[in-house]
Amino acid sequence: MRVGLLFGSFNPIHIGHLILANYMATNANVDTVWLVVSPQNPFKPSNSLLHEYDRLHMVRLAIADNPDLGETDIEFRMPKPSYTIDTLTYLQEQYPSYQFSLIMGEDNLATFHKWKNYEQILQYHEVLVYPRPGSAPVPEGLKNHPKIQVVSAPLLDISATFIRGLLKEEKSTRYLLPEPVAEYIQAKKLYL
Ligand SMILES: Nc1ncnc2c1ncn2[C@@H]1O[C@H](COP(=O)(O)OP(=O)(O)OP(=O)(O)O)[C@@H](O)[C@H]1O
Ligand SMILES: O=C(O)c1ccc[n+]([C@@H]2O[C@H](COP(=O)([O-])O)[C@@H](O)[C@H]2O)c1
């Protein structure tokens, strides 16, 4: 089984994540894509970060109708902040016969050389990258790397930051968030 792993804060999950995950699940060399909800990205401030169980719940609501996508809360039981190499190592121990690839947006590839043990990640895993507008330039050493593949797919100028801004101002997020996620946010009065 070939599993693509899309790690993220998903604060909240939006249609950019869903388009990206579905594109990889149906066009890249993987059988399924799992969304890995990270409690705490080592590079991001934790203010405005919703509780991890709310973010996981929204991910579940968003992908419930898509058999090509799954999710995992594996990082909830690991030390924080969440280092991807540690999670990959743990997952590989749990599922020794599976082949795990890493999926990320281009903005994350631009800083990938600063991640913990990134060379080790590249040694054992393929990295599938979705282009993202406004991303910083990719460092020379990562451009044309044999383990890194940047796919050609429609650019999506959507971010969770932008959507949190709309929610805070009580503006419409219609078509930017999956309906069940928008309903959950409204019912629980999140991001106000
Ligand atoms: N519009 C997008 N285009 C390409 N990749 C994206 C897009 N949105 C998110 N991603 C990728 O999905 C993964 C998880 O992203 P994350 O949950 O941080 O969303 P985000 O919209 O970047 O959030 P924030 O605005 O809070 O930083 C990352 O690898 C990120 O690069
Ligand atoms: O392992 C690292 O050093 C590392 C550094 C920065 C980000 N990450 C992971 O990359 C994922 C994307 O983060 P985010 O917040 O942009 O969705 C998330 O799972 C982070 O834990 C991992």
TrEMBL record:
The keyword Signal does not apply. Gene3D superfamilies: HUPs. It catalyses: nicotinate beta-D-ribonucleotide + ATP + H(+) = deamido-NAD(+) + diphosphate. Pfam families: CTP_transf_like. Residues 6-164 form the Cytidyltransferase-like domain. Pathway: Cofactor biosynthesis; NAD(+) biosynthesis; deamido-NAD(+) from nicotinate D-ribonucleotide: step 1/1. GO terms for molecular function: nicotinate-nucleotide adenylyltransferase activity. CDD domains: NMNAT (cd02165). The keyword NAD applies. Keywords: ATP-binding, NAD, Nucleotide-binding, Nucleotidyltransferase, Pyridine nucleotide biosynthesis, Transferase. Its EC number is 2.7.7.18. SUPFAM superfamilies: Nucleotidylyl transferase (SSF52374). Catalyzes the reversible adenylation of nicotinate mononucleotide (NaMN) to nicotinic acid adenine dinucleotide (NaAD). Belongs to the NadD family. This is Probable nicotinate-nucleotide adenylyltransferase. The lineage of its organism: Bacteria, Pseudomonadati, Bacteroidota, Cytophagia, Cytophagales.
